[in-house]
Amino acid sequence: MAQEQKLRTPVKSIDLKPGAHVHMMGICGTAMASLAGLLKDRGFKVTGSDQNVYPPMSTQLEKIGIKIMEGYKRENLNPRPDLVIVGNVITRSYDEAQALLESDIPFTSLPSAMGELVIANRHSIVVAGTHGKTTTTSLNAWVTDQLGLKPGFMIGGIPKNFDLSYRVPQGDWFVIEGDEYDTAFFDKVPKFIHYRPKSVILTSVEFDHADIYRDLEHVKESFLMLLKLLPEKGVLVTNAEDENIADLLQREKSHLASGGRKVVTFGLNRGDYTAKNVRPTESGVEFEIHRAGRPPHKVRTQLIGEYNVKNALSCFALLETLGFEANQIASAIESFRGVKRRQEIIGRPNDITIIEDFAHHPTAVKQTIETVQARYPRSRVFSVFEPRSATSRRSVFQNEYAEALGVGHAVLLPRPFNQTSIPEDQRFSSEKLMSELKNKGVDANLCESVDGIVSTLKAKAKPGDVILIMSNGGFGGIYEKLLTQLG
User: Fold this and answer.
1) Which of 293, 313, 334 marks a domain boundary?
2) What's the predicted TM-score (pTM) here?
């Protein structure tokens, strides 16, 4: 009973003295690692624990001098920290979590700590949605930086323009990736609930995170919470071509229409801001932005793909609506170099281009494959996908993955990452997917291990080919193994 009482009472306000010791459980998560850097830069002593450590966040933590304790052990809380921040990967069954609940050490969640310790009363730009959050957040961080706003930011990836996923704010602005995943085992609300939004970009809404959401309606309920948080005179920028977002806007119509709030829409063909004359360039893509009452404005970006055109549109729409000058916004967008692990070329051994991407939802997988194949029209593209996320390891998108990967030239797939906690009748089947892809005429290969994938690619890939690797994890070190074996 004592444990249950402590479980319900994370600290409601945080009062840390300079140099205080903050310990972070699950520190290698993208957001956790970023917060660790923010706190260290503010002069706190930061320690952390994790397991299954992998780059790029482990590398970032090493770079900034934060040591990672391997495993969730009770002794990680000795010496006693002044505050523990608990990541959402932690369950109360872990030894370290049990030791925390048995102690009197103050604890909180990552989003709550972010809202109170970092965002505070700043103009918080929250980028939310099922797809495109990391790139769009990174782009907004860079553009607001180039506009001279000296923003802080926290991103679920590493922007190439900054080489870190976070920055302590020097001014009154903060840009943050607003994840709809839940906050912690003691705080079951979406992370973005704690991020104090004054401006919101909502990119897209689809069913995802099948481990915590029942269905699409349950997902929509989380985004309705975000819309309700938009303050008076706040700005909401949304995708005009997303039917699920249209439903949310209708439900919150009265709230959004009151208090001087602004709702601005964007889309390739529909919305207040639209993209016309989209065409690829040597370095990326260029297009014209059209909006009522102003002449078209040409924008160039180093990003590729129609979905990145939408990401750029949303950034332009928000910042012009907030009063910034179009030429300055467009110039900053053009100099944005993208995000690590988002269509990032990691090497060209033997003239075989290896591209790494974070895609894991079937919509993102399909868009990524189509974009890369269009980018390299004369190349054979091998699409390698790891079912690793909580949703992709479940059967909920079994048919959707067949459609997504069915657009590929050739597909290689391992068995899903660790399905032991998933009931057998709910597990994603690589074998079933392989059968469906072969029926579609796709060159589909089921490999028992990462080494098997590497061996298959070594035998099949020729100079001029492209290997696209899609995973939201370390994928058994496949990147280094491929570079070595093909080089």
Assistant:
1) 334
2) 0.88
